[in-house]
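protein under study:
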Amino acid sequence: MARITASVYTSHVPAIGAALDLGKTQEAYWQPVFKGYEYSKQWMKDNKPDVVFLVYNDHATAFSLEMIPTFAIGTAAKFQPADEGWGPRPVPTVIGHPDLASHIAQSVIQQDFDLTIVNRMDVDHGLTVPLSLMCGELDPKKDAWPCPVIPFAVNVVQYPVPSGRRCFMLGQAIRKAVESYDDNLNVHIWGTGGMSHQLQGARAGLINREWDNAWLDQMIADPVGCAATPHIDYVREAGSEGIELVMWLIARGAMSDVVDGKVQGPAPKVRHRFYHVPASNTAVGHLILENA
């Protein structure tokens, strides 16, 4: 059967993509950010998955305020980098895995989660920046991402957004779906977005180091308690965009120590943890967990 062996968590700041694309990674401002992913790039090579299931949020490219699905799974054979107003990022086309994606959709919907099935969409920085951070800089004319990717978009843009508990439960349903797939595939699940940041209003620029790291501690050791964090806490403590962190709970819920909504198995191994501020007025968090 297929299996989820690891989960990856990372911010997906658009300015990080711009720094990569414009050759600014060695500038003093950006060096600490990219240094935090050096281990991760080597880990990715040493633990290459067959498929990445990548949870992110669309930023008004595939969807708009006219139509925003709560959960949407990309089932296409390929996904082009989106033009977010300044041209598509110069990165390879994202190759999908239609068969596994369709299987997951079937299984998860039968587990009473409503998914929107998307057979064609472009993918923005929410997906391509994490790929660049984990896989390194690639030439779209001659390189390819190291494996197929299944995009999974979550609405954290317009309220009402899904609760952390709902996302955590969804992760468990995704793991069951993967494990019921016949082919022997090594799957990684990634949760992206966050950490604390606010892009508008009187609190624009808010970053909360203490809350971010306490939340990360709890997500690792007590994911059930972390999933119970109410929306108002994210907004108050992590800013209006801090709600993106509920997407990390999908990946955490998919780990093997979570059974029937409770932590019952051996804890995952923390392979790498990194935190840095600021990166374009956002707190950058990063974590790699491997199933025990």
In short: The radius of gyration is 17 Å. Residues 109 and 115 are 7 Å apart (CA to CA).
